[in-house]
Each structure stands twice: as C-alpha cells, then as structure tokens.
Design a protein that fits this description.
Elements (H helix, E strand, L loop, with lengths): L15 E4 L2 E4 L7 H5 L23 E2 L7 E2 L11 E4 L6 H9 L9 E3 L5 E3 L6 E2 L5 H6 E6 L11 H18 L8 E3 L17 H13 L3
Parallel strand pairs: 3-7, 5-9, 5-10, 6-9
Antiparallel strand pairs: 1-2, 4-8, 6-7
Helix pairs in contact: 4-5
Protein name: N-acetylmuramoyl-L-alanine amidase
Catalytic activity: Hydrolyzes the link between N-acetylmuramoyl residues and L-amino acid residues in certain cell-wall glycopeptides
Keywords: Cell wall biogenesis/degradation, Hydrolase
Length: about 220
C-alpha cells in the first residue's frame, strides 16, 4: 500500500502559501525559488476548474480520499508525469478505501483496482498523491493500488490484470509515457522505499503485454 506517515511529501507546502497574488511566509521560513515555480497555479483564476466527482479514467468510480493524503497541484503543468507506480494493498478493497479516506493515514494512491476489475479513483491525476514514499516520485507519477496480498498469487486475477492494463495504457497515452519497465514500475523499485509490492507473483511480462495491447487499441 502507499507510504505511511514517514512520507516526506506530506511536509511540502507547510512553509509557504500563495494567497491573493502575494507570497506569504509562515513564521520566518522563506519560499525557495523551486517551490514558487510550482505554486503559481494557486493564484486566483489560474487553477484548472475542478468538477466534483469527475474521473480521469472512463468507467472509474469516484470516492474521495482525505485531503490530508495528497497535495493539490496542477499536473502536468507544474510537475511532468512520467511514471506509473504499481502497488498492492496488502488487504481487501474496502479496507484500502477506508484507509485512504482516513486523514491520519497520511498516504493514498490515485486508483484502486479490485479483484473483479472494478476501478475506483480517489485522487485526481492532476494532484500529487502520497503513495510512493519519495517526494520526487510522488510528484512525477500516478499510483495504482491492486487489491490483495503480495504473497498470494490468487490475488492477481485475469479481470484485475485486464482492467489495470487499460488504466495504465490510458495514463501513458495522456502524458506520453513510454510503455516500458523504466516508466511503469513497482513500488519496490522506488528509491528509498521499504515496500516489496507488487511482489514475486505479479506477472510483469503479462502485464506489460496487456498494457501495450491496450495502448494500441483504438478507442
């Protein structure tokens, strides 16, 4: 599942706020130039319109994660998206949804794929989800959780693989992400993580083949 309370990403933005077109420092903190370059969208009239319940993947069900588990952004305008990170929930679908709705969890992925192929979106792709345990990777990636356990091969069903592959293919199309193992990675491959998902039973060859097939299929 997504990174827990150690996720450094959740500390972002507490030092600074753009309001009314002016930069204000909290306490004596000073806004770094890099932070300012990623906060321009908070100026009045700049942020992209948001529609309640809107999803980025057709057919997904919207269930909102707690705002404590992600950071509002304006990707890919402020952060380029060039990765998809594959996770496993280490539990059931319902428990994962509840965890991402819990503000004390301090982590969530953009999507959860259920065993039967149902897809739930909990964070918009334009926002930075706290899922990878690495600030840079959170900013540049979309996180997809999969219901199940890393040590149970039965967790990864045909329906799950197929639905997840279509989801990942759509993300790759939207942002021009190459369909390869350098850009579609497991949580275990994120620098600095202590997670092992998706684990040895996740069939990468099969999954990547499905993603390539879905990406080339005309919608």
């Amino acid at each position: 599942m997504g990174a827990g309370k150690s996720d450094a990403d959740r500390r972002i933005g507490r030092r600074a706020l753009l309001a009314g077109g002016a930069a204000a420092a909290v306490g004596t903190a000073v806004l770094a130039r890099g932070e300012l370059s990623h906060l321009w969208w908070r100026l009045p009239g700049v942020e992209k319109p948001r529609v309640a319940g809107a999803v980025d993947f057709l057919g997904a069900q919207w269930v909102a994660a707690s705002p404590a588990n992600y950071r509002r952004a304006d990707r890919p305008d402020d952060y380029a998206i060039d990765r998809v990170v594959i996770h496993v929930t280490q539990g059931g679908f319902t428990s994962a949804v509840k965890a991402f709705e819990d503000p004390d969890h301090k982590a969530a992925a953009h999507y959860i794929v259920r065993k039967d192929g149902h897809i739930t979106q909990m964070i918009r792709e334009l926002d930075v989800a706290f899922h990878a345990g690495n600030r840079e990777y959170n900013e540049r990636s979309v996180g997809i959780e999969h219901e199940g356990f890393v040590e149970r091969a039965s967790s990864f069903t045909d329906a799950m693989y197929a639905a997840s592959a279509r989801l990942t293919a759509g993300i790759c199309k939207r942002y021009g992400i190459p369909v390869d193992r350098q850009h579609i990675i497991g949580h275990v491959e994120v620098p600095g993580t202590d997670h092992t998902d998706p684990g040895r039973y996740w069939d990468w060859d099969r999954y990547m083949g499905l993603v390539r097939s879905a990406k080339t299929t005309k919608s």
